[in-house]
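One example copied in:
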Amino acid sequence: MKIDEVRGMTPDQLTEALVNLKKEQFNLRFQQATGQVEKTHRFDEVRKDIARIKTVLRTKQATA
């Protein structure tokens, strides 16, 4: 997910995307614990996407 995509989303869409990414992060951790992770690079991608969304949400709330 690129920053331009994130900035173009509404706060409701950002919150929904954040929830989905948190679920994916949990599932990845669960897969790692059971040794079934195939795409290990997704850990970093999901973590960075969560940070991007939180940053944009914070800035949108500060300006509103």
Remarks:
- Residues 2 and 49 are 8 Å apart (CA to CA).
- The chain has a mean pLDDT of 94.
